[in-house]
Protein 1
Amino acid sequence: MRAPQKSCYAPPRESATQQIVSGFHDMSTRALRLIDPETAHHAALLGLRSGLGPRARADRYPRLRTTLAGLDLPNPIGMAAGFDKNCEAPDALLASGFGFVECGTVTPRAQEGNPRPRIFRLSEDRAVINRLGFNNKGLDEFADRLSARAGRGGIVGANVGANKDSADRAADYVLGMGKVWGHAAYVTANISSPNTPGLRGLQERGALEELLGRMREARVALEAAHGRRPLFLKVAPDLDESAIDDIGDLALQFGLDALIVSNTTIQRPPHLTSDNREETGGLSGQPLFQISTHALRLFTQKLAGRLPLIGVGGVESGATALAKLRAGASAVQLYSALVYQGPGLVARMLDELDGLLAAEGVDSVSEIVGVEAR
């Protein structure tokens, strides 16, 4: 990496057409914030499926091209799981500029999730609390949609989980892997949602050792039938250093390809001001940034470059994406920021991140990964 240079970067000026389109999306975002959050979410998905989403080239900036666990990404900004639970709009999301998209979490059987209301905006804090509880239409419908995009470009991953009433949660993850393996670019096991009782217990050493052992056994057969896929694990930000050590050790022992750090938090930072701050559920958005980035740094120190990390939590700008990369992430994911900044955020972040890297004299995003720990 070359010595930092003084920045003369300015965001590209939009054409008249781009300004009109941006204005439409901004108005749509403001309108969606006036209605119930879950209804707004469904409306946003419908708009994407109808072709009303923004358009931005994911490979616009050569400097942002990178690799993650053997996957070639046009840029390191991904769509986090939770937005497109049923794999309804991955191609529209890719068309908006995301370098990769993660659909799910999907469980073997369809389930309704927790009672409504279960999503709460904390507008003053640029945050969201959700207690959805893995609501989704089940593996069969998800896998059908995923398989229907065979032959199309773009990196689309599948995030799998366990049913709330499952008698054998490890078996649910194995079943999920089997259903999506032949169609997904990668598979993530989500063991860190706070909204399914007992699920986070799978992060404890004994339970995780059993789960990863069964997943590894299933993976051998799946790879023989369908070829290799990267296998990721999504963890919580609310882990102590002992748990981080255990998870890091087991991730290496059982041949995982990356860790996603992190899911939502059960913490409630004292600076929250919204009336909804005491709602039960997982907190995401801007207040999660410091918490999740601290966990990311601890995993970076533990793994010392032996396993890629994906940074999630409070990513809302090129600057916050850069901070995650510096802390050790090879790529980042976002979701909650779209609630407040709209679907055009991805294109703006790509512009900003490329400009920030140019200002530092960096020719490739990979040069900046983990510089804080070097």
Note: The radius of gyration is 19 Å.
Protein 2
Amino acid sequence: MTGTGNTQKIPLLIIAGPTATGKSAAAAELAIRMNGAVISADSMQVYRGMDIGSAKVTEEEMRGVPHYLIDCADPWENWNVVRFQENAREAVREIAAKGQLPILCGGTGFYIQALLYDIDFTQMDENTPLRVQLADIAAKQGPEALHALLSKKDPASAAAIHPNNIKRVIRALEFASESGGSIAEHNTAQREKESAYRSVFFVLTMDRQKLYDRIDLRVDKMMEQGLYEEVVKLHQMGIPRESTAMQGIGYKQIYGCLEGEYSLEEAVRLIKRDTRHFAKRQLTWFRREKDVIWVDIDMFSSSEELYDHMQRTAESILY
């Protein structure tokens, strides 16, 4: 949570948690109260033209607070954790140089971890010939054959990666080939590193059923706002289904509807289901993180009371 003993570190306030817990509103409010600027740690809000399905923070919701890493990539680009880390580091330095508090806000846990602990990705560069060879094995022999190969080379990573997650299996095999080590052990070691910042790491949470109800309502609102039409436009632009951007929840399911695989009603059901599953995975991820401060929204009678608590806690640690 804190970089104790090193006051030279840049202060960093982190507001994380599962989808639909009100992270963006909290970040904007605390930025106003504490002279801050917000850096988005969301893997979908980076894409231009993908506003509704990503629940992108609007100009009104920003409340005049500068926001970074929103609308900084086109949907046909491959945005990833390495690009995020580079851009986020630069944003932190820029905000701090202005005498403001950098506030990292989002639900993509790996992005937060990459910045907070300055994870080293230099050993994870693409090995194109090997990647082609491994992808060919997956295509011809199936994902199980690829996963079996990983089990021999790196049992720890194989135990942590589902056989159907071909992209991660390939990355683990590449890492093993390039470094002779285990990507799972590498990531564990990186998590043990001391924070690169003097940080406060809030994770917002709430009653699980209440959260799921909020998710369902938000999906209904997205449909009313024009999520279907947003995906149709991206489809007409020729954004390929396998692109990183189209793997986002909401976009992926409606794309399937547009391809005639199921009805729009079924797509909406899948969006709600998959978003609930995603929120559960987010909570699981944040439980693994060290030194986080869990903030149960249900314990506060108003947003004002919640923000007062977060502000007092943050200031007592950062300053």
Note: Confidence is low (pLDDT under 50) at residues 1-6.
Protein 3
Amino acid sequence: MIKTVGLILNTYPYSESSLILKIISWDHGPISIIAKGIRRKQESLMRFGEYEFQLYPPKEEGLYLLKDHALIRDFSSYPSPQSWAAADCGLELFSKIFFPQPDNREYYTLITEYLKYLQKTKHNGILIFWRMFSRLLKMMGVPLNFSNCAICTKECQPLAYNPSGEPICADCKATLPFDHAYRDLSSSAQKIITLLPEIGNHLEEIKVNQVDITQINELFLFHYSSMQKQNMKLKSLNVLCQFYP
């Protein structure tokens, strides 16, 4: 018998009466659980819920078997649909990444603290998502370095980025061939990137537009794909972007 605390990232129907739960757990990292017969019971297991689980070790298809559960915290309520969409992005992101076993608790703390913060945030949830994504990349050992040019390595204000999601300074951009595959960063996107470590102090003053969103999303996703050698697509991120003009 195994006891662990876990956050449900997603649920999938399994037969007429059961569910497969994809969770991130405090002790074991990401695991999948089969909850047999749970769909016939009045008490359900909800996505966004943090539970204490009692589990039997895997026997079939690597699935843990649910014996019992108790709700600890409900992360499903937010002050605005926009904040809920940002929380949804966080769950989808965590459901797709692979991270080292020894660091399970650090990742677990990151996602739960992210959800708690969003429960107090009504506007500009996408800024909190980018800050969390930045911290996640650093924990994974592939930080997105915003302060140094990828070409000359000098400290700089990033003016553009390349297909690997690396920032490029103004001097290096001026020397690149005309057809070089770089993308410009708007001045407002540059400001957001610079402020990301302390973005919680600037939520009210920053106005995010679609240009900023496209550029910063690409920067993060390009970098992740380049470092991890796999593409990252987040359907929930497209939903979140629709809240901005």
Note: The beta strands are 2-14, 18-25, 29-35, 49-60, 63-74, 160-161, 167-168, 183-184.
Protein 4
Amino acid sequence: MTQDSFFETLELQYQNQLPFVVYSRAINSVIKCWLQNDDALHTTSDFSESGFVFAPFDLNNKSILLPETECEHYTLEIAHLDLVEDFKTASIENKGEAEHLQLVSKGIDTIKNGDLSKVVLSRKVEKDLENANPFTIFKRLFNTYKNAMVYCWFHPKVGLWLGATPELLFKVEGKQLTTISLAGTQPHAENSYVTWTSKEYEEQQIVTDYITKQIEPHTSDIKISEVETVRAGNLLHLKTYIHSQIKPESSLKSIIEALHPTPAVCGFPKELSKEFILNNENYNREYYTGFLGELNLKTSKTRNTNKRNVENNAYTVVKTNSNFYVNLRCMQLKNQKAVIYVGGGITKDSIPENEWEETVNKTKTIANVLS
């Protein structure tokens, strides 16, 4: 399938107001699209179906499913997408500074006076778009963010979302669970030696210990990798892989509930920070800081026990695979506007004015794709 025919098929789907998702996983030159045959709204609560799932921050709300059997599937293998610029944008007005400073101050006071250790507080910013084509934005994201899961998702009864998220929630291959612990941040500088403080390693260990504790009731044979430095755009992070085996009695839903939302998008302890967010942010995150990805897709591989007699000694191994990414660095398109979502982690030592500036800088990062 050529690039032109691939995106013409997507354009027709969008013009007909039918659900679709187009996406590419991190460090991957394969773009996939799923086109649902009708505009029915499918949801999941137990995550037992097969399809592509788009889940909200608060799992008390519905997770949207594009069922595998109700969709046509196309694949495009390409390293770089050609695009024609077709829209203009206005500059962002970062409104709501006083409200955000007040929210962060309240978060700091709550941490100092209670059992909350960290809370992630966010806001949304609107940017005017003139005749924006979502596939042009998707192409820009794909060409710009090679270390991210890049996507464009649409359902006429829900909305249109795009993003480039670098953060894996977890993946399942058969019974093997892989998740990552990510902490510590510093700017990337070419030809410079990377050093981390003991405080940053301690923060990384706290996240690793938290994830390990969360999955312990549901998995066995937990293995933790060495800490490594990874690059995401212009930033460096400390990263640890955590591998384990899902117990026979454990379900995918139990793993999701154990790990979502993560401390990176919610806070710690999870339930207390989530309650603070829902009661104080004064807007609905919807699918920002939710998760998305392939759900229970089956893959098969033929193995031979005797190379001399392939026909009689071949057998097929079928695995069920899932991979979910946290919906960060994302936007929603509606009413000729891009609604951009940004946030930051608040601790007892946070300074409200600095937290505001951090959200302004994060807004610029994603807005660059629209400029």
Note: The chain has a mean pLDDT of 90.
